[in-house]
Amino acid sequence: MRLIPIFAVLLLIFGVAGSTDAAFRACAQGSVLRPTTAWRDGKFNIDVKGVVARSNIILQRPNLQREESMPLGNGRLGLGVWSQECFTAQLNRQDTLPKRLSPGQIVIPSLCKLTNAADFTGRLDLYNGDFVERGGGMTAVTYVDDQLDVMVVDVKGADPKVLQSAELRLWSPRKPEITVESDLGALAETWQDTNELGSTGLTFGSLTAITSDGENVHVEAISPLVVKITFRPHPDGSFRVFVASPAWRGGDVVGTAYSMLERAKKSGIQAHREWWNKLWEDVDLMRLTSSDHVAEYFENLRVIDLFTTVAESRDRFPGSQAGIGDLFSSYKDSHYWSPSAYWHWNLRMQVSANLGAGLSKFNEPYFNLYNDNLDNIAKWTKDHMGGRPGVCIPETMRFSGQGYENEFWLKTQGISCSEDSQPYFNARTVSTGAEVALWAWQQYQFTDSREFLETHYKLMRDAARFMLAYARHDAAGKLFTYPSNAHESNWDVVNPTTDVSAMRALFPVVIKAASTLKIDQDLVKELQAAIPSLPLLPERNPDQSALLREGDSHDHSIIANSYTPDALKHNEENIGLEPVWPYSLIGDDGPLHDVGVRTYLNRPNKNLADWSADPVQAARLGLASEVKKALVEITKTYQAAPSGLAQFTVPSEFYVEQVGIVADALQNALVQDYDDLLRIAPAWPKDWNVDGSVSIAHRGRVYVQISNGQINTVGIKAGDAQDLKMRNPWPGHNAKVIDASSKAMVEQSADAVFTVPMQSGKTYLIEPSDNTSTDLPFAPVSGAPANEPKRLGARTIGVEPSRQ
Fold first, then answer.
1. What is the mean predicted confidence (pLDDT) over 19-38?
2. For residue 351, how far is the Cα from the chain centroid?
3. Which helix or strand (DSSP H or E) is residue 415 part of?
4. Consecutive H or E run containing 82
């Protein structure tokens, strides 16, 4: 197939010098192998299993500490699994509100032979969605059934003559009811949501039931908090332990548990693995390499993000709150941040990363959180924001739509979206509703689901109505907001950059949405009339607090946090970069690009939190070296857990927000399509090789291969039949568009930006047209499973041998 110009030294789509791990190593050592192509008959060929397995998490010794636990889940029921007492797993759900109480821990002391063995090895198998441990002739595979909320431990190699045991435990001050019947033991508990501001009075609870398919199962309660089962393995040395933990608000313990456990016994591990294998086939994968192996580390973190996203995001509401991976906790009922409230700032990176990874359906819990509570949010807005119309979505919002932040360590509880509150971190953060609305528009753009737009348009409309109602006109006729927070950084200022960005981004989008649905023309006219009156982004010089005045030079300016630039600082955020991401008002070109770059380089808080959007914003600005630098520095500071997840303090709960930032930054560095202009490798680090795909708007997908700093080939799979405006990946060269199946020329252009005519479902190759092409041998993208932990400075993914 004629695909690549001779001057491109190595490679084609998805292969560096041969597309195998051996070829990558040879390339890194200076060998030059003949380039290959992964395209055949219009199809891109990739060994999905092999590429995902490159990111498996390897344990070279037992993970004895809870800080070393491995995450598992089916999107509703999650686990943290580690080797304390030979085997311990904590079960977690998001619907055990308001405290997100754990359904319990499972301990299997009879697995000591395995975990104490000299030849112990462990592997979090990301492709199969399970945790595999081997040692002493035994194997234990732990997983959560994809359809049933049942944890399974599948053991082989046990001595049939040795009695086995497993315990289901809770802890004080929990007060479960214990059920022991035949081969089933259960702990069940219910409680009411009555003790916090914003309490609903609703009943919540947890149910956990344990059994085994071993021989002669016996169950007993050994304390008010512990149920124990004993049994013998089957004659072949195998047995399984099953632990069910469904949603629970009371009812028939035995009937509910037995029904679920019997179905799980019939389901088996193969069905579970097939579900995960099928899921990976639809995900955008990115294979990274670099001579120092730093790129491989971030490839691993991105796959962990995809894995944990699926493992926590199939319930009604998000599994994560405050950026914490609650479903993977190993800390009993301990939570630092109030588990009843969601923090939008710590969810947004996950929403964005899911879009680019082809996982948009896993954003549904995020949108449910706000859409299902829309009436409650509207009532909150009327009650706390002066009766204004529309919705002020609380930045920190209880699961039931109220803006209360019930932290145990606060003397006075925090309130969001409240005109009558004392100044506080999010008391008057009024831009959250606009940002949620903008993510809803992005979700619609990616999926082209009119049903989704119709469902979520009311939120978009009401967010715009509130911003119109909150803003006032100054003497010159310009709109302004006051008092309003620049998120958590500055309180009660004039025209925070978040508000200015929100209105400038939201109003045109709501106009588009209303026009698409052919409704609300009066609102459209009101928004159109408001746009010319919107304030400009505030600017100042880096060494001065005063804002630029009319007529001042903008040659050295940066974006300020608000029109009150000397306001007291309360948090370490980079509000001046919000127009870059998530509001997408500034990119890697255009009239505001230079001020955006200066703002980035002069930002006050550099890589200071695991939620820091620095690498994403660097990618949007086209700053390739800054993308790499920010990723490395944030990871070295915060990624403390061997599972690849972050921790703010050590030890602490596990945070999923950092891997979300990693995934989103890598995707934005490779492909951008946020403003109807496709950019290829706008900020890709020059010393990183990549073979990857990224999902784009209208159900499309872009494949990019880069080696030795050169873009070799670009492939585009059309989703819906919409022409695509594209920046020429090879400035100064003509570009041609080829039908990847028929090899026919579709388009040829010398322009810096050209249009690709798209037909639904077809795949196209983009390549320079003013150079001679050559045929290349076919080789699919492949990968070998990881066999050891990865290291980045003092950080590791995986568990290394103990150091003497």
1. 46
2. 6
3. strand 414-415
4. strand 77-82
Q: How many CB atoms lie within 10 A of CB 625?
A: 12
Q: What is the rounded distance in angstroms from the CA atom of residue 420 to the CA atom of residue 403? A: 12
Q: Phi and psi (nearest 5°) for 130?
A: -145, 170
Other C-beta atoms lying within 10 Å of the C-beta of residue 555? 9
Partners of residue 203 on adjacent β-strands: 192
Residues 139/157, Cβ–Cβ less than 8 Å: yes
Q: In whole angstroms, give the CA distance from residue 405 to residue 413.
A: 6
Cα end-to-end span (Å), the chain = 56
| Residue among 612, 656, 56 at smallest CA distance from 309 | 656
Query: What are the distances in angstroms from CA 598 to CA 438, 542, 554, 558, 592?
Result: 26, 9, 11, 6, 10
Per-residue CA distances from 170 to 369, 596, 690 (Å): 29, 52, 47
Q: What is the pTM of this model?
A: 0.95
Nearest to 652, CA basis, from 66, 83, 59, 63: 66
Rounded-to-integer distance, Cα 225 and Cα 109, Å: 17
**Gap between the Cα atoms of 523 and 506, Å rounded:** 13
The helix or strand, by DSSP H or E, that contains position 735, with its residue range, turns out to be strand 735-739
DSSP 3-state assignment of 610? Answer: coil
- DSSP3 helix / strand / coil % (the chain, rounded to 5): 30, 25, 45
Task: For residue 278, report the phi and psi dihedrals to the nearest 5 degrees.
Answer: -65, -40
CA distance 450 to 163: 58
**273-284 as b/e: b if 16+ CB within 10 A:** bebbeebbeebb
591 contact partners, CB below 8 Å, separation of at least 6: none
Three-class SS string for 216-262? EEEEEEEECCEEEEEEECCCCCCEEEEEECCECCCCCHHHHHHHHHH
With helix as H, strand as E and coil as C, how does 316-368 read? CCCCCECCECHHHCCCCCCCCCCCCEEEHHHCHHHHHHHHHCCCHHHHHHHHH
CA dist., res. 647 & res. 795, Å (int): 12
C-alpha span between 384 and 479 (Å, rounded):
22
Q: What is the pLDDT of residues 100-135, one digit of tens each?
A: 999 999 999 999 999 999 999 999 999 999 999 999
Cβ atoms 52, 126 nearer than 8 A: yes
- Considering only CA atoms, which of 759, 758, 764 is closest in space to residue 745? 764
Q: Of 794, 669, 658, 705, whose CA–CA distance to 302 is shortest?
A: 658
Q: What is the pLDDT of residues 239-283, one digit of tens each?
A: 999 999 999 999 999 999 999 999 999 999 999 999 999 999 999
Backbone CA torsion sign across 745, 751, 752, 758? negative
Residue 316 has pLDDT above 50, yes or no: yes
Cα dihedral 371, 377, 381, 387 sign: positive
